[in-house]
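User: I'm curious whether this sequence folds into something compact or stays loose and floppy. Could you predict its structure so I can see for myself?
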Amino acid sequence: MTTPGCQNADMDQQPAVSAARAGCHGRPPHGAPGIMRETNMRNIVLLTAATLLVATTAARADSWGKPCTTAPESQWLPLDALQAKLEAQGYKVHKGKVKKACGEFYAIDKAGAKVEVFVDPTNGSIVGKL
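Assistant: Here's the prediction. I'll summarize afterward.
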């Protein structure tokens, strides 16, 4: 007994497969409904994961998103002084800047994890971490 499209296939020697999904050598035929559903579901899952990744990255790119102080810039500490305060707390700072009235530093914490630390530019106190 042979399956249409399969040459010299012996159905008695093929593993048991549902009749709707049976194809050559016990594999489902190309484009079988079950396979298409699995592929569509996989695509949906991958698309959802990619969307979440992009949304998370966009949120991180906007940083803390709110000012850390309302004090005028004339009262802010220099970037070097803010970095020194973080390093005194055990952070290894790689890069820093002041953005939206908030000091933003890319650093390694005491545990060795990469972190983004946000500090109040008037006194160097940590107001948030990502």
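Summary: Residues 82 and 130 are 18 Å apart (CA to CA). The beta strands are 92-99, 102-108, 114-119, 126-129.
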